[in-house]
Amino acid sequence: MEEEIPEYKKHIASHVKLDILLIIHDDALVDTFSAEMQEFNVRVHRAEELEEVFLCVEEKKLDAAFIDVDHPTIDPLHIIAAVRRSSSNCGIPIITIVPLDKMDLLEKASRAGATHFLPKPIVWFQMHRLMESIQWRLIDERRQYRRARAAIPVRCSYNGNQIYASSIDLSASGMLLRVDEDLPAGRELVLAFPYGDNYSVSFLLQARVVRMIEDKKRGKLVAVKFYNMPEARAQKLLMWVDLFLYFDEHTDDKEKKD
Question: By C-alpha distance, which of 127, 157, 112 is closest to 38?
Fold first, then answer.
């Protein structure tokens, strides 16, 4: 019996867009693949030249890559190694598409860093089962990068000092804050938020200043990154981000209707 997916996971899955790199030479196969992937709320990024592949790997945050190991113009083993060396995509699943008469390439792809494989010709039922098995992991990791607009009062403490800020956005990994004084990159902070007379503090987190930004319209902005966060608190923060995004999306929809 298949495990039933909880409603909250279905909701999150419907609102998290996944970005998948596709390196397949056959146009008809690409079209079919893209159509089959619609069920999983996926944006397909096809790369046909080596330069396109490297740009996609280095400049985009991808969630997975599907690579035909029998590609006629691109060395798939070279690409797999490049993905594993990239800064943002080194840990993503790499699914190799391997022709049944060239299964010897599977071992080479696995040694290069591939994690899954599909036989070619593709049996689409197998592709769906594979995506179902890894979809939530991909969504959960993508959630770490989603930023929600959130105006939250924040108390920043460091070296016995306290300053008060207001967030502009929030993610599971950090915040963008509006502040009145300079906070240099590398400064370690303890953040308490939401903070104020009407709030009991929900989060007390360690953070590090990543960069200071001077914005003409919004003034001094500080990007901070969380660290040493307990797992239970990280999951609670993720749900907060999901909640802010949910309200943001529904507010935008309402404004469009009005």
Answer: 127
Quick check: 222 and 212 in contact, CB under 8 A? Answer: yes
Total domains in the fold of the chain: 2
pLDDT in tens, 177-206: 999 989 999 999 999 999 988 888 889 999
Boundary of a domain, candidates 143, 168, 195: 143
In three-state secondary structure terms, 195 is coil
Rounded Cα gap, residues 66 and 56, in angstroms: 13
Answer positive or negative: Cα dihedral of 202, 248, 183, 210. Answer: positive
Kindly state the tokens that stand for 35.
Answer: 């159509």
204 within domain boundaries: yes
Same domain for 96 and 114, yes or no, is yes
Domain identity same for 36 and 129: yes
Structure tokens at 102: 């060239």
Token match 């960069």: residue?
Answer: 211
Domain end marker among 95, 126, 143: 143
Same domain assignment for residues 89 and 31: yes
Residue 159's pLDDT band, with cuts at 50, 70 and 90, is very high
- In angstroms, the CA 117 to CA 54 distance is 22
User: What span, in angstroms and rounded, lies between the C-alpha atoms of 181 and 36?
Assistant: 51
